[in-house]
Design brief:
Blueprint: H1 2-5, E1 23-27, E2 33-37, H2 51-57, H3 59-63, E3 66-72, H4 78-92, E4 98-104, H5 111-120, E5 125-126, H6 135-148, E6 150-158, H7 163-171, E7 173-179, E8 183-191, H8 192-197
């Protein structure tokens, strides 16, 4: 969270340093704004008294467009931890969501381990939240995933609905924007979800 958004959220080497999700904005290279939300870390045997709080934070997982599965690449039981998280995602019914493996703590592993991760998980990204290594690669990967799931539309938006123009710039990539006497003509790449909300204005 802090690496991507330059936030100053609490970081502590302890179990459940916080149970509250944090929301922060990130502007991608395309100009699109996205919201990053963190969750509590997943563990294999959750203390009974924390189950309710834990489940509350996972509502963010169900709402997300992309899941960033952050893994401690230096941990001796890394593979087991990945399986635990995947099982929790399966239990939540979100295992089919677009998920990007992010191997953190690259500063604590050697080149051989880095190479092994690249071979075994070619679609993953390796970062160090401590040093900042891999930040640009991670943001670029997020941007690429979102672009791949977007569609290009041509829109005719009446002036009394001009509030959509700002949303298009914030949530999509606007290629062309023209103003006529009666309407605003826009060509943009946007999510299928947003396109559905604007279907009455689509003219292509």
């Amino acid at each position: 969270m802090n690496l991507l958004t330059e936030a100053n959220t609490k970081v502590a080497d302890q179990l459940f340093a916080t149970l509250d999700s944090t929301l922060r904005k990130v502007v991608l290279p395309t100009g699109r704004q996205v919201i990053i939300s963190d969750t509590v870390g997943f563990i294999k045997k959750l203390p009974h008294q924390l189950i309710a709080s834990f489940n509350a934070t996972l509502e963010e997982v169900k709402k997300a467009d992309i899941l960033l599965h952050v893994v401690d690449s230096s941990h001796p039981k890394m593979e087991e931890q990945i399986k635990v998280v995947n099982q929790v995602l399966s239990d939540l019914g979100v295992l089919n969501k677009m998920t990007l493996l992010v191997f953190n703590k690259a500063d604590l592993i050697d080149d051989d381990k880095l190479f092994e991760l690249e071979i075994r998980y070619p679609e993953s990204v390796t970062i160090s939240a401590l040093t900042g290594e891999g930040r640009d690669d991670l943001i670029a990967k997020i941007s690429d995933i979102l672009l791949a799931e977007m569609t290009t539309v041509n829109l005719k938006i009446p002036y009394n609905e001009a509030h959509w123009v700002d949303k298009l710039h914030r949530q999509g990539e606007v290629y062309q924007e023209k103003y006529s006497n009666n309407e605003i003509l826009i060509s943009a790449r946007i999510t299928e979800k947003l396109a559905g909300r604007l279907k009455e204005y689509i003219c292509n």
